[in-house]
Input
Amino acid sequence: MAEMLEVALDGALKTQVMYRANLSFAQLNQYLKIMIDLKLMEVVKNSERTVYKTTQKGMRYLQSYREIRDLLKKESNGNPNNGNGVYLVKRGSQVICSKGPFY
Output
């Protein structure tokens, strides 16, 4: 979602959002519906084109996302191989939370 909001900061066509955020057409439509419903993104119709643009609320979401991402990066910058990380591993249909690196 953050990547989609980044792409649409100045307005973007649907295909631009899809390709730059590396989404399938089905994924794009699902996320666009959610983001428009949540008012993170808006639809702007220009003459013959439909442009998707990040709203003020979407910009606040993006800023919060960046702050959280940066905070998590700072936590792991000390020693990335210290074995203190938490990892989610999918085994069959179960997701297991484990500590320590997986190689």
Observations:
- The mean pLDDT is 84.
